[in-house]
Amino acid sequence: MINIKLDKCGGLTAALALATAARARGLRLMVGNMLGTSLSMAPAHIIGRLSDFADLDGPLLLSHDRALGMRYAAGQVYPPGSGFWGSSRSGVDRR
């Protein structure tokens, strides 16, 4: 098994390549994090969907996370809310 951490492997593109190579060799996958807001967990969530285990609890260890970030409930992690990536419907005044 390998533990993929996007902060250490070079980002989402590199993590996807690493996951593909690991699976081709019959390895199991885990995705982890280096502590961060939902902004860093959101791309890792994509790798988490390919993994056997996910440890994406970084935002839970912070006193404040980004608005509309990842949602955690009953041991599950859910993707960011609508508008997280800067949509004009996010309620942010852009004047």
Question: How would you characterize the overall build of this protein?
Answer:
This protein has 3 helices and 5 strands; from the N terminus they run E-H-H-E-H-E-E-E. The chain has helices at 6-9, 12-24, 38-48, and strands spanning 2-5, 29-32, 53-54, 71-73, 76-78. It is of the alpha/beta class. It has one domain (2-80): TIM Barrel (Alpha-Beta Barrel), CATH 3.20.20.120. The model is unreliable at 90-95 (pLDDT under 50).
In short:
The radius of gyration is 14 Å and the shape is elongated. The protein is 29% helix and 17% strand.
Summed over residues and divided by their number, the pLDDT gives a mean of 87
Number of separate structural domains? 1
What would the principal axes of the Cα set say about the shape? elongated
Which segments are poorly predicted (pLDDT under 50) over 5 or more consecutive residues?
A: 90-95
User: What name is given to the CATH topology?
Assistant: TIM Barrel
Helix amount: 25-40%
CATH architectural grouping: Alpha-Beta Barrel
Oligomer: single chain
Strand order of the largest sheet: 1-2-3
Question: What is Rg?
Answer: 14 Å
Strand content: 15-25%
> Helix- and strand-based class?
alpha/beta
The CATH homologous superfamily? Enolase-like C-terminal domain
Query: Major beta sheet, specifics?
Result: 3 strands, parallel
Total strands: 5
Distance N terminus to C terminus?
Answer: 49 Å
What is the CATH first-level class name?
Answer: Alpha Beta
The SSE order reads EHHEHEEE
Count the helices. How many? 3
